[in-house]
Amino acid sequence: MDDLLDDFLLETADTLPTAEAELVAWEADPSRRASLDAVFRCVHTVKSASGFLHLHRIEALADAAESRLARLRETPEACTPEMVGLLLQALDRIRDTVGHLELLGVEPADDHRALIAALTQVEAAPPPREERREPHSPMRAASAEAPPPEPAKPERSVRVNLDVLDSLADSIGHLVRTRDQMLELLPTLREGALRAPLQRLSVITGELQDGVVRARLQPIGAAWRALPRTVRDLSQALGKKVELVLDGGSDAVDREVVDSLKDSMAHLVRNSLDHGLEWPDERRAVGKAERGLIHISAWLEDGALAVRIVDDGRGLDADAIRETAAARGWLTPAEAAAMTDAQAHRLIFVPGFSTRAEATAVSGRGVGLDVVRTAAERMGGRVSVRSTLGEGTAITVRLPLVRPAALADTRRGEPELQVPPLRRVLLVEENAFFRHMMAPLLTAAGYDVTAAASADEAWRLHAEGSDFDVVVSDLDGTGPGFARRLKEESRWSAALSVALTDLPVGRVPVTDDFARVVRKSDRAGLIDALASPFHAPAQAPAPGQAA
Amino acid sequence: MRTCLIVDDSRVIRRVARRILEALDFRVEEASDGAEAMALCRDRLPDAVLLDWNMPVMDGLEFLHALRREPGGERPIVVLCTTRNEPKHIAAALAAGANEYIMKPFDGDIIEAKFAEAGLPFGRTA
Question: Model confidence at A396, in pLDDT bands (50, 70, 90)?
Answer without folding.
Answer: very high
